[in-house]
Amino acid sequence: MTRPDPDPLHLLASRPSLRMDVHSGLLFEDVPLQILARDLGTPCWVTGAGTLRRRVRNLRSAFEAAGLDVGFHYAMKANDHLATLSVLRAEGCGADVVSGGELHRALTVGIRPDRIVFSGVGKTDAELKFALVQGVGQINVESAEELVRLSALAGTLGATARVALRVNPDVEAGTHDKISTGRAGDKFGIAWHEAPALYRQASDLPNVIPVGLAVHIGSQILSPAPFRAAYGRVADMVRALRADGLHVDIVDCGGGLGIRYRDELAPPPSALAGAIQETLGDLDVALAIEPGRWIAAPAGVLLASVIDVKKQPDDVPDFIVLDAAMNDLARPALYDSWHGIVPLSPERAQEDLIPQTVVGPVCESSDIMATARPLPPLQRGDVVAILDTGAYGAVMSSTYNARPLAAQAMVEHGQWQTIKARQPIEALWAGETIPEWLDRETA
C-alpha cells in the first residue's frame, strides 16, 4: 500500500528553521522568502547559516554524550560554497575533499591543511602533488596502484604522505543503488581480503606512513545496522593488523547518515555515535567522521516560480511548470529523489490539496520534481520552496539547455545577503571560440 505524502504544513512542523507567518508567508531563519524571490528572482538557492551551525552542534553533542572524541571533516561534495565552508570552519570542522578543486576551496576559506582529508577514487598526479606540497593531514588511498604512485610522487618532492587505506567492507548499506559505495562490486575502496597485505606493503614503501583505515559505505543510510556491520569488520581488521605488529592509529568512519526528506524514520546522530562506540570505542584509535548531507541538506531551499499551469483531463493531475529544472536540482531526475514543496503564500498554504505533477522547463521527460503530489491549487506567478536542497543541490547544477546558474543567498537571524549573483546569459559562451576557417567559410 502506497503511503500518503505529507502535506506542506506537516513538512514545516518537522523543520524548525522554516515557519509560515500569516502576514509575511514562508520564513527561513526569520527571513521572508518572498523578499528574496522578489529581489533576486527565481530560481534561487537559499542557505541557512544558523541551520548549518545547529546541525554541527547537534552532531558534536551526540558524540560527546557517547564519550567519543571525534574529528569532524565536512564532506565538501555536498555543498562547497565558500560561505557554507566559512560557517563550518568557524564551527570547528575540517574538510573531506575529493578533488584538487575542492582542496583549493578548503584552503581558500582558511581550513588548515592538517584538518583536510583527501578522499576519492581517481586522484591525478597533479592533485596528489598539490596535496603533498600543502601538507594535508591524510590521504585516503583507494587502490594498490594509487599507493605505489603516491609513494613515487612523494619521493620526487622529498615529502612524506600520511595515508589511510580505504577498505571496502562488502556491506549492503540499504540505500539507493547509485549512492551505495561499500559493496564488493562498487568502484570504491580496497577489496576486503586484499587490504591487510596492502597495509603491510604501505609500511615498507618509502615516503609513505600508513596511519590507519578509512571506510564509507554510502549515503542517506536510515538504519544504524549497516554502520555497525561495517565498523565491526574494520575493528576486526585493526586487531588483526596490530597482532601482525603493525601500527593503526586512526579509523576514519566516513559519513552517510540519512535525513528525513519525506516521512522517513531517519536515525538521530546518537545512533551513529552508538554504532561507533559499540564497535570501535575500545580500540584506542583516533576517530573521525565525514558528514555532508546530514549537515547541509536541511540548511537549503530552492525557490521557484510557477510559469504555467498546464491543464489535463479531470482524472489526470495538472502539470505545474516551474522555472526551476533538472539542470538546477538534478536529484529527482538522477535518483527519483523526493523533496517537499511548500508555497510561500500563507493563503495558498491553507487551501485544500489536490494532486499536481510539478515539472521543469528542460526538454527532457525526466525533468519532474514531483508526480501527483498533493498541493494547494497553484497558479501562474506563485512561488514555492523546494525543501532540503542544501546538499547535492546547487553544487550539481549545470547550464543544460543554455540555462544560467541560479542566484544564491544566505540567511541568518532575520538578515540575508546575496552570496552568488545569477549567472549572466553572456557568460554561457564567454569562453567559447570559433575556428578561423569557419569564419573564412562564412565571409
UniProtKB/TrEMBL annotation:
Needed co-factor(s): pyridoxal 5'-phosphate
Protease is among the record's keywords: no
The protein's GO terms of the molecular function aspect are:
diaminopimelate decarboxylase activity; pyridoxal phosphate binding
Q: What is catalyzed by this enzyme?
A: meso-2,6-diaminopimelate + H(+) = L-lysine + CO2
Q: Name one GO biological process term.
A: lysine biosynthetic process via diaminopimelate
Residues at the active site: 363
Q: Tell me if Translocase is a UniProt keyword of this record.
A: no
| Job description of the protein | Specifically catalyzes the decarboxylation of meso-diaminopimelate (meso-DAP) to L-lysine.
Supply the HAMAP family for this chain. Answer: LysA (MF_02120)
Q: Which family does it belong to?
A: Belongs to the Orn/Lys/Arg decarboxylase class-II family. LysA subfamily.
Q: What is this protein called?
A: Diaminopimelate decarboxylase
From which organism does this entry originate? Neoasaia chiangmaiensis
